[in-house]
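ESCALATION

Customer reports they have been waiting on this structure for their group meeting. Please prioritize. Original submission:
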Amino acid sequence: MKTHFRGLILRTVVLPLAAIVFAPAALADNWPQWRGPHLNGSSDAKNLPDKLEKDSAKWQAKLPGPSGGTPVVWENKIFVSALDQQSQKLLALCIDRSDGHVLWRKEVGQGVFTNRRNNMASPSPITDGKAVFFYYGNGDLAAFDLDGNPLWSRNLQKDFGNFNYQWTYGSSPLLHDGRLYVQVLHRDVPVQGPATGEKAESYLLAVDPQTGKDLWRHVRPNDANAESKESYGTPMPLDGSPRDEVVLIGGDCVTGHDAKTGAELWRYGGWNPQKIGHWRLVPSVVTAEGIVIACAPKAGPVMAITAGGDGDVSKSHELWKTKAFTSDVCVPLYYRNQLYVLDGDAKKLYGVELKTGKVKWSGSLGGGDVFRASPTGADGKIYCMNERGQVWVVSADEPFKILYKGDLAGADWPTRSSIVAVDGNVLVRTSDTLYCFGQK
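Update from on-call: job pushed to the front of the queue and completed.
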């Protein structure tokens, strides 16, 4: 199988994460989780290309199947999840950053294509420089060392019951302070068919990354209806909080949890008072300077919540709320002390003051399709990509200025993976190809 997959690759020469205090060079050279080294979409990477032209790529690697999962990077190794279109196998891949060849490939489980917008390989991998963790929409969770040797594996659906999602499970885990966090915020009854037995629970699970065994599981209730119970977000630590917290969003509310026990500390809600039943939640929160930024779905408001509250903080800790901009899918970017919000349906990017919600500038990206990949900030630039595989490089400075627009369109499948920035390289995953841009 390994030899066969190497034939699919087109090479064209064109210490736990939270426990280590990384030097700036190390942070710039790694992208260990799906929202990067700072978990806010930004990187300290320098010497990045201004243009992402297909013919000038350092290398390009054909992938066995599409995925919305974002590649992660540790030094010279790139880790990628995929669902093989031919065999329907859920794959864990390690690719050499220098030239794009496959270092190892593992079959973790069996998956299916259930719709044209998502598949079971959508969650992004995670690494701490010692191990790499792959998670899939069928519940398979597996750990390998960086050379591809298996460490442990398990399946969360077998352990805790079926996932009840309309559009296939897609949340990525979080690695924080020596714990691997997985959220399952879903319906309490199956999407289709009769409901039998006890209602399913939504929960936050903490796993020991060394053994794969549970540390604890916290049940996270909500009073949302039907699809509005579903969340495709990822847990996020609350940057700048006086407490060690992990924040979840979904089920018509945002909740802060004690990172060591999972106990709920506070809850914020109110954007769906009519309890509309189709307001699933896609974008994770972004946190910075003791502030949580949450995006309500379906053209709902963007909200800022201050840290330090207890119980219901819907009024007491709301810093600002606005409909001047919105995001139904794309996670906002925090970069250079500023918030960047991409409205993927309107194809518009906003530069926003974090503490006031004031729009400093905005501009239209245009293009032939909607944006579902979250923006990336590095080296004074913001990288964006739409579902068609068209790419933009925008200045991070005021006023709004498009530096470059290009097209990396591949196979007929939506491109949803976020762009990755590490020192000297920009990695772009389209529907069928992984590109590396930078000096050859």
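Sent to customer with the following note: The two ends are 30 Å apart (CA to CA).
Escalation resolved.
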